[in-house]
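#dry-run=false #mode=assembly
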Amino acid sequence: MILLQQFLANGVVVGSSYVLVALGLTLIFGILKIVNFAHGEFYMLGGYVAVVGTQLLGLSPIPSIVLVITVMAVFGCLVERFIFLPIGKKDPTNVIIASFGLSILLQNLALKFAGPEPMAAQSGLPRGAIQIGDIFLTSERLAIVAVAIVTVTILLLVLRYTWVGLSLRAMSENATVARICGINVRRVGVVTFAIGAALAGLSGALMSTVFTVQPNAGSLIVMKAFVIVVLAGMGSIEGAIVAGLALGIIESLVTGYLGSELRDIVGFIFVMCVLAVRPQGLFGIKTDRS
Amino acid sequence: MRTILLILLAAAAFALMPTIVGGGYFINIAIVVCIYIILASSLDIVMGWTGLYSFAHAAFLGIGAYTAAILGRDFGTTFWINLPMGMIVAGLFGFLLGLPLLRAQGHFLAIMTIAFQTIVYLVLSQWTDFTGGQYGIEVEPVAGFTALSSFFYLVLAFATICLIAIRLLTQSRLGDSLQAIRDDETLARTIGINSKAIKLVAFAISSSFAGGAGVLLAYHIRGVTPDDYTVLASATVVAMVVLGGRGRFWGPVMGAALLIVLPELLSSLAEYKHVFYGAVLILVTMLAPQGLAGKFLEWRAR
Amino acid sequence: MAEIIKAEGLTKAFQGMVALNAFDFSVNEGEIVGLIGPNGSGKSTVVNLLSGVLAPTSGRVLIEGKDFSGAAPHVVAKLGVARTFQMIRLFSSLTVEQNIVLALQEQSGPGYFSSFVNRRNALAWRETASAKARKTLALFEMEKHAEKLATDLSIGQQRMVELARGLATNPRIFILDEPAAGLSPINVDRLIEMIRRMRDEFGVTILLVEHVMRVVQSVCDRVVVLDYGQKIADGRPDLVVKDPKVIEAYIGLGRSSNA
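#status=ok
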């Protein structure tokens, strides 16, 4: 029983990081209808920025987080402007391949410049575990959950109550009508990528304090993010939150009771089974083409 | 017909290489080029002809390779049994994967192929008892073909046969149906094409060829390890197809040759090989989505 | 007279919205039957159900007496049901002639394996098929466009190619889904002429779904009227248009069709 609680708690920690990454992907896919395979590299780069920030620049936690969010948001804008926009204009179907190429490019650049050894960021938080009831969590892990909660809350508020948020939601419903209503589609594109990249980067930064970061950290994460987004129904924010936490918890339970070899596989097998039965995802709508 | 003759001619010319250039280094590259030509051309059946995305090609490469390695290890079978077995097993997996996969459209399909590729990699590296885990399995060289140049002729012969087969396939009714499905699947179905079955067959055939290439690779590097069969390897093949030009016969062949040879020529680039592949994918989709073959045909039409 | 196609109690519901409700109707050999109705009445749904693109929620589709409800489009096509689409569908990477040859290949071409191993046979068949395609194109005065990419033609020409594609396969029934849509008056005249010729010279049975009343009244032996997924009339064109129920259906929504 106690073990179960600990597994659940660990699951929530990992699940929180998944939620952040998946939310970024949901926004980019739901609003811009772009499948971005390089999303995992946003996560990876965020981790490295955190390493640079805390180790090289000696920044304390909050400024590091600000640094990560800023750098990744800018990076997201650049990627959108110079890669996804031109290719999307010419032929949207090639965007998948280009994003695949970007993923390979970034992974291997990281490999060249940072080397294959995992690196950790310093959290600057007090060492040692904190006890809540029967479970033990290090301050870093708690921080992950806390930051995630704060971020998601801010995001939901922004989406619901600000003009930017409304524009994003309008775009995701019907881009043509949104355009006619005067929404600046270009700006929506840039903002979406900025937010998406920042969320993923933040997740990577937080996780780099606990689990370290390495060049291929993104490849597994992006697949899990896609699993979550697919299960949630592409474009569903609430679904992404639920599914992200669920995946984290399921993985934790599988690791705890069945061993860690199965951890990464379980999500993929699950999503392949779901897609085999429901090709449109759990919450998606079947399109009858006629 | 003309293309078949060209293939045979090119193969014959290529066959002269060891006598002209000699040296293990070049023959090694030549062998790898042949293997990747098989990979790229077979992937094009799915990507160029059927119009689907598959980032799982290296998974079938791996399945073929490991089938050969495991059969050799556990049953002592020779290359001549392992090669067809590798192709059959890979083709079977292609068929089984295709059943759920091909019901998905566009984006989902792409994601599923990467998921499958990742699963295969994870299984190969984690199921240590069966696959040897990260250490892999050793493979004995082919009896009677232990000399590098003789193995090269073997690989060249197989590659030539594969290319001819692929050419005949795409020129046959299968190619016509695939093209129709790519253009407009609903229309194809209403004129009588069983698109689901055809896509499945194309996918299985493509995977089978990849499996064959995997067997050759296993015998070439004398072993199988999981890290040779990752998403990265799939990306390499995708880059070759996209660079060379999807749906055009010589496109993938050119793409494969270029992306293997270029990094070797520019030796400083060889280290950044994978960075290069990524950049190629981005640049080609941005500047020349039709690939080199497409650009060439455009230029000739002027 | 043989019933080529018959719908029995055919119903189709989309997530709570009933597009077609207990629809009974049949088309006999050699007839030209028209299917009309205001926008949203379910005409396209009928076409999609009969051609296998959609599966019925309940009810049956019988083709030459056999139950093929819910059969896939390619199965239905092999039974001799040809159709055109409201939004013209042609293979964009193929020439006009290749479009037709492809349809012929599905009806009478060599098998997949045979075309792979016996190239000479396959090429010979293709020669024959090309000749037949060109002959059919000539009927529609499209022969000179045979080598052009199908999508390089004008709308009127593309429509003729679609008709040629269907006719070339000697269908048991040819379903035309709003063929006059987007055509100029001259091309509508040509359309009427070609529909008549297809039946008179080739004995093709035709189901014509149309908005343009001029076409319906010129060629149809019988007209079936749909409104909100229900059949409200079935009879001679000149009588049906005077039927008060039919007039109500159209006027009730505001004038929605004019020839």
